[in-house]
Sequence to fold (86 residues):
Amino acid sequence: MGLKKEEKEKIMSLIQRHEKDTGSPEVQFLLLNARINLLEEYHKKNPKDNQSYRTLLKLYAKRRKLRNYIIENYPEAFKKIRDLLA
Fold:
């Protein structure tokens, strides 16, 4: 139930700093956001699956921390991310 390789590559190509960039905070944020979107869809179909809901809550917290880090250290990158998600 994760992201497929092609989907990950497509997401990474949107905001990579260089060709082999897979670990920058911006890329991590977009991949995490895509994973959250998949898990939200799954949870809508399976509301009684408490383990997936708990995982979703953990991912929300991780995304929030990563977003705050990006805003503090890379404000121009956050503007680019915000434009991509809008």
